[in-house]
């Protein structure tokens, strides 16, 4: 007899009954009836302050959600995750991104092996590579120092490094040979083509970043890059002893869990950084896949990023559920999705350095928890991951906030900002202006969450408003303040969301560490490509796809 699904259990049922009472309660009322609500629903850990007071809940709601977490065995699941048990059940392996940020003096023995020495051996190899670049000693085939590195990867092999390098661009080490780090992910080659038109092949190196080393998007970009290098470097310099082997060795690095495939592709063994199957793609920026990050910020800052994430791991492991940031953030989401029917979630950073944070979280959350089958293979009868999207809050104010304020959808919002910025700018006049701009940004951040909460009541006005100026408010939000944006607080912010995703998956009884939903599309794309290339028969195609393919053929014929 399978165990009852979570929505059939007592804690869920009690929450459903409680939600029926809470649905008609406006957030504004919750505030006017409970002084001290901010303090009651705010927690701090690892350089982050999480204010959950603008969620549509009260003490009793949180008590009941914590009971749900206990009923779903969240504490046991946290322990199993961090201990390296095989929590990724469909692929029968652990999910050990947390091991990548353990300090060297710790140990984590999983299935008889201590993983920490191998993790730090990889970091040491990374450090050696980074040092070579920063000393101007990594030379291309013609002997010139490498100045530009292009990361070719997609999904987890792109979004994490792209997001972090952008967020920490202020942390470039001083006095080192500067390396421009760029990212090309799209299979259509448009980003890559742009780089190839601007970069000098003699001083450009490509990092092939792919856990599987089979991803067609990355491999097709890699082939184009290889042909470009060969044509440009060998054509002109053949007589100077530049051969294909030298080009491959000096212009490519491979980051993958498959050393065999890197080797087959022609990556020199000493220029490979391998990692482990137990690191999920979207959880992989903490190790080898983080090489572009280390190239931008240096190894010390990269290690500070790991330390920040580790501080959040410790908090996740040790704090009681009622003070545990990832658990509380997860429970707020569960309350909105499963009990208030709010199935849209917007991520709104108020700091330009976090430009790619929403894109990063879209993969982390939706690829992890966009699932509808439980661990034991039953269809869930409740909603799981909401539709999650976002962009920089100040820009989104001029784009989609209209819908947040007056649309028909309820949306949960996460507002994210550092408390302080620019106080270290050397020139006092510029510093004052920039600090003022940061305060302006914070004012907007706080104003938006207040208007979303209170609606019209955020402002005292005489007389009634016309209906088209009505703001109903009652939109729930969380506000996350970073003490300041540093490698360490960014590490803990990312780890916070990783663990939030895990807690939600535990309650929904789904596996956040696989992504079978993306496989069929890849297979059908391969078949479709063969038809487009006239290598397979179009007869079996559905009518729409056949029509589209024929439109392309007809355009190609001119
Ligand atoms: O297709 C989805 C996916 O497998 C993601 O999970 C992953 O991050 C991305 O593709 C890239 O995969 P790889 O690192 O193996 O190239």
Automatic annotation (TrEMBL):
Alphabetical keyword list: Cytoplasm, Gluconeogenesis, Glycolysis, Isomerase
Superkingdom of the organism of origin: Bacteria
Compartments reported by the entry: Cytoplasm
Matches recorded under SUPFAM superfamilies: SIS domain
Pathway(s) the chain acts in: Carbohydrate degradation; glycolysis; D-glyceraldehyde 3-phosphate and glycerone phosphate from D-glucose: step 2/4; Carbohydrate biosynthesis; gluconeogenesis
Statement: the UniProt record of this protein carries the keyword Transferase: no
Main location group: cytoplasm
Stored Pfam families: PGI (PF00342)
One GO biological process term: glycolytic process
Enzyme class name: isomerase
EC number: 5.3.1.9
Keyword Cytoplasm set for record: yes
Reactions catalysed: alpha-D-glucose 6-phosphate = beta-D-fructose 6-phosphate
Single GO term (MF): carbohydrate derivative binding
Gene Ontology cellular-component terms listed: cytosol
UniProt record similarity statement: Belongs to the GPI family.
UniProt protein name: Glucose-6-phosphate isomerase
């Amino acid at each position: 007899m399978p165990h009852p699904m979570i929505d059939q259990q007592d804690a869920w049922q009690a929450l459903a009954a409680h939600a029926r009472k809470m649905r008609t309660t406006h957030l504004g009322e919750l505030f006017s009836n409970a002084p001290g609500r901010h303090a009651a629903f705010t927690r701090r850990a690892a350089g982050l302050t999480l204010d959950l007071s603008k969620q549509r809940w009260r003490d009793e709601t949180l008590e009941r959600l914590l009971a749900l977490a206990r009923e779903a065995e969240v504490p046991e699941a946290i322990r199993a995750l961090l201990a390296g048990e095989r929590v990724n059940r469909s692929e029968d392996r652990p999910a050990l991104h947390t091991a990548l940020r353990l300090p060297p003096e710790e140990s984590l023995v999983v299935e008889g092996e201590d993983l920490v020495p191998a993790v730090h051996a990889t970091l040491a190899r990374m450090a050696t590579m980074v040092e070579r670049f920063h000393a101007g000693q990594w030379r291309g085939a013609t002997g010139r120092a490498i100045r530009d590195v292009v990361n070719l990867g997609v999904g987890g092999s792109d979004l994490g490094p792209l997001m972090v390098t952008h967020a920490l661009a202020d942390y470039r080490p001083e006095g080192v040979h500067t390396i421009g780090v760029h990212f090309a992910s799209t299979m259509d080659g448009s980003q890559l083509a742009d780089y190839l038109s601007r970069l000098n092949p003699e001083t450009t190196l490509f990092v092939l970043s792919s856990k599987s080393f089979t991803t067609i998007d990355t491999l097709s970009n890699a082939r184009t890059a290889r042909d470009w290098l060969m044509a440009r470097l060998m054509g002109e310099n053949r007589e100077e002893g530049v051969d294909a082997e030298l080009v491959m060795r000096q212009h490519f690095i491979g980051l993958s869990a498959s050393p065999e495939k890197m080797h087959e592709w022609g990556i020199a063994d000493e220029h490979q950084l391998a990692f482990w199957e137990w690191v999920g793609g979207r959880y992989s920026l903490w190790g080898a896949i983080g090489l572009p990050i280390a190239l931008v910020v240096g190894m010390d800052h990269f290690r500070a990023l790991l330390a920040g994430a580790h501080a959040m791991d410790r908090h996740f492991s040790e704090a009681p559920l009622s003070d545990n940031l990832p658990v509380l953030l997860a429970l707020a989401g569960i309350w909105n999705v499963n009990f208030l029917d709010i199935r849209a979630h917007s991520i709104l950073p108020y700091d330009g350095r976090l430009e790619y944070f929403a894109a990063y979280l879209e993969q982390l959350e939706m690829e992890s928890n966009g699932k509808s089958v439980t661990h034991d293979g039953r269809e869930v009868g409740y909603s799981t991951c909401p539709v999650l999207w976002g962009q920089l809050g100040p820009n989104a104010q001029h784009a989609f906030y209209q819908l947040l304020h007056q649309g028909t959808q309820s949306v949960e919002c996460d507002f994210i900002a550092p408390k302080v910025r620019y106080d270290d700018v050397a020139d006092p006049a510029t510093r004052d202006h920039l600090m003022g701009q940061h305060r302006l940004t914070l004012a907007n951040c706080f104003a938006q969450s207040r208007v979303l909460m209170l609606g019209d009541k955020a402002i005292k006005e005489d007389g009634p408003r016309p209906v088209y100026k009505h703001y109903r408010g009652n939109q729930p939000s969380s506000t996350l303040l970073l003490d300041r944006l540093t490698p360490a607080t960014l590490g803990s912010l990312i780890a916070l969301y990783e663990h939030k995703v895990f807690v939600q998956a535990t309650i929904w009884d789904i596996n956040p560490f696989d992504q079978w939903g993306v496989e069929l599309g890849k297979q059908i794309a391969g078949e479709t490509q063969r038809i487009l290339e006239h290598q397979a028969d179009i007869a079996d195609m559905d009518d729409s796809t056949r029509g589209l393919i024929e439109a392309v053929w007809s355009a190609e014929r001119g």
